[in-house]
Amino acid sequence: MSGYPQHLFLDQSRAVKYLCRKCKCVLKDPVQIQCGHRYCLSCSSDLIKCIECDTNVDSDKIEVYPDNACKREMSCLMLRCPAEPGCVWHGSLKDYEERGHNRHSDEVGLPVQKLTRNGCGNPGIAQNPSGNRKPLNNKINELDKRITTCSKLIQQIQWHTRTVQAMEREQKRDRDLVESLERKINSQDHIIALQDVALAEQDLKIQSLEMASYDGVLVWKISDFRRKRNDALSGRTTSIYSPCFFTSHHGYKMCARVYLNGDGMGKGNHVSLFFVIMRGTFDGLLRWPFRQKVTFMLLDQNNREHVIDAFRPDPTSNSFKRPTGDMNFASGCPLFMPLSQLDSSRHAYVKDDCMFIKVIVDATDIN
Do 223 and 353 touch, CB atoms closer than 8 A? Predict the structure, then answer.
C-alpha cells in the first residue's frame, strides 16, 4: 500500500479530502498529473491514464508535478504511528515524516531494542521503566472514544445529508410537476382566449347579417356618439364602418364608412362619408364596374332638414371595379357636412347620444 491508511488519522473526515485516486489511501508524497488529480508519488510511476476521469496519458510524455501546497495542508493532520501496530505515539504527519518512528519512540520513553525492517521498534515487548505507560494508554483510550463519537456524528451528518438530498430531489420533482401544470393551464387559457375571439367574431357576423338589408337601403344607427367622436378627435379611431347591406339577396355587397372628424379636405372641419364596395358571394353574376347612383343622408331626428348628397360612380375608378380583396377603396363625400352643424339647436343630427345615417343605392336598372 503506497499511502497512509485512513483509519490511522484522528480526524478521518479531514483525511478523506486527501485520498490517492489509485491506492485509496491518504497521499504520501502527493503529486498531480496533467488532468489535475492527485496520486502518491509511487502510485504515479506506472500510471498510463487517470483512474478518476479516464483521461489517457502517454507514458512517454507523462508529466508529474510535486504538489507542495497539498503537502503543506496535510502536514498538520494528526495520526497514530503508521510504522508499527501497538505504538502509542500520535502526532502530526509532518512530525512523523521528519522524525521517523525511532525518534518519537524515545520521546514517549520506549526502548529502541528490536527493529523491524522499516526501522520501527516493537514497544509491546519492552517495559517502560519510567512507569508512564498507563497515563498514555488512558489518553489513547480517551482519544479512541472521541474518535468513535466523531465517527457516529459523521454517520449522523451523512444520514441527514442523504435525507436532505432526498427531500431536495422530491421538491425538484414537485416544482417540475407544478411548472408542467402551469404550462398546461397557460396553454388551455390561450386556447380559450382564441375560442372567445372566434365566438366574438361569429357574434359580430351574426349581428351584421341580422342588421343587413337586401333592398339597397342602409339605415345605420351610430350609438355612443360622444365617445366615438372623442376617439376621432384624439386619433384613436379615425373612422367607423357600417354593417354590410345588399342590393338583393344575390346582389352587390356594400357598406358605408364615416370619419366623424373628417378625412382629406374635410379633416378637422367636416364629417366625411364614403361608400365601399365589398367582395360578395355572387360577384361573378353581377355587372362590373358598379354604376348605381348612391345617395347619402344624415337624418335630422326632428324631421326638419336632413343633410343629403348623392353621386354616380366613375366607371374608370378602381373603387367600383370587381373587388379582388375583402373590399375596394372607399369613395364618396369628404365634405359631407360641416362639423359646426352637429351642434345646431334647430336640428337634431345627434340626439340621445345617437346619430342616424341612411345610404340609398338605386337598384332599378340592375337587372
Answer: yes
Q: Are residues 102 and 150 in the same domain?
A: no
Give the whole-angstrom CA distance, residue 265 versus residue 261. Answer: 11
**pLDDT tens per residue, range 51-82:** 888 666 555 567 888 999 999 999 999 998 88
**In contact, 255 and 324? CB cutoff 8 Å:** no
**Cα dihedral sign, 119-122-127-131:** positive
Q: List all residues 6 or more positions away from 122 whose beta carbon is below 8 Å from its beta carbon.
A: 84, 86, 114, 116
Average pLDDT score, the chain: 86
Clarify whether residues 42 and 145 are in a common domain. no
Same domain, 79 and 28: yes
Environment class of residue 359 by beta-carbon count within 10 Å: exposed (0-12), middle (13-18) or buried (19+)?
Answer: buried
Q: What is the CATH number of the domain that holds 310?
A: 2.60.210.10
Of 257, 258, 240, 249, nearest to 213 by C-alpha is 249
Would 1 be classed as within a structural domain? no
Beta strand pairing call for 270-278 and 245-246:
unpaired
Strand order in the sheet with 30-32: 38-40, 30-32, 65-66
CB 139 within 8 A of CB 145: no
Full DSSP string of 290-311 = ----EEEEE--TTSS--EEEEE
Q: Is residue 366 part of a domain?
A: no
CA dihedral sign, ordered 62, 25, 88, 154: positive
Question: Residue 122: which pLDDT band, with cuts at 50, 70 and 90?
Answer: very low
172 and 236, same domain (yes or no): no
Residue with cell 366607371: 315
Residues 242 and 199 reside in one and the same domain: no
Distance CA 203, CA 211 (A): 12
- Spell out the alpha helix ranges (H) of the chain: 12-15, 68-74, 93-107, 133-211, 225-234
Expressed as residue numbers, the domain containing 181 is 132-210
